[in-house]
Write a sequence for this structure.
DNA sequence: TTATTAGATAAGCAATGGCTTATTTATAGG
DNA sequence: CCTATAAATAAGCCATTGCTTATCTAATAA
């Protein structure tokens, strides 16, 4: 059973932007705040929501806190989506091809 | 670029329950309202949100309106998730199991 | 026609969400 | 020590959300 918090966390565009950034590269709160059109406290609040949803993890180093996407961040979401691929036959074939490629 | 409306629509547990029902079987508003702990207007409102997000489609027949999941309902969401799937190799095995179940 | 039923829409309400500025806590460096 | 900086937390504001009851529209059936 997927947690609503995952969908809620990703429903906000700013939060999704944060997640996408952190998927590419670990960043401090300050780094994120510098890129986004919102204040540092707003970023901290967004990070708290993402952390609560299990989407990001933190690492403290001195005064800095570095965030990154959590391992298996999207596991539950991916599983939920996969359940409905059954109603979507054309995509299943494509997916099988992708999996085959991943094996090679 | 995925639309926030998809995440927002699925962030509500009642709405997710509606979507999951409609993925299995076409149902009238009344059918849905009978199964859920909310009023008929609430169900209509939820359906409007799901429709707005492109997740469900309707078919009118007399006084009844039957809803079902839209074709390709989760296309954009699946695409978004797939972009991050490469970071989680363990997930691929579970996905294969799901696909195997679907074949049987 | 008239009454009934399916569903959408309107209006109002309490709770939540995303933002701000102000403050607090913790670490670093003079 | 004292000051500066990184980040979290507090408090308040306004918009949005999910629900309710009441109403409206349209289609069926008496």
């Amino acid at each position: 059973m997927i947690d609503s918090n995952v969908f809620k966390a990703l429903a906000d565009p700013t939060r999704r932007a944060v997640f996408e950034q952190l998927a590419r590269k670990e960043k401090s709160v300050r780094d994120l705040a510098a890129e986004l059109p919102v204040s540092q406290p707003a970023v901290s609040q967004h990070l708290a929501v993402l952390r609560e949803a299990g989407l990001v993890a933190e690492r403290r180093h001195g005064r800095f806190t570095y965030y990154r996407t959590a391992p298996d961040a999207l596991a539950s979401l991916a599983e939920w989506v996969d359940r409905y691929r059954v109603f979507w036959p054309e995509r299943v074939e494509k997916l099988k091809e992708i999996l085959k490629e991943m094996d090679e």
In short: Residues 28-30, 40-41, 43-45, 47-48, 62-65 of chain A lie near DNA strand D (CB under 10 Å from a C1'). The two ends of chain A are 32 Å apart (CA to CA). DSSP finds six helices and three strands in chain A.
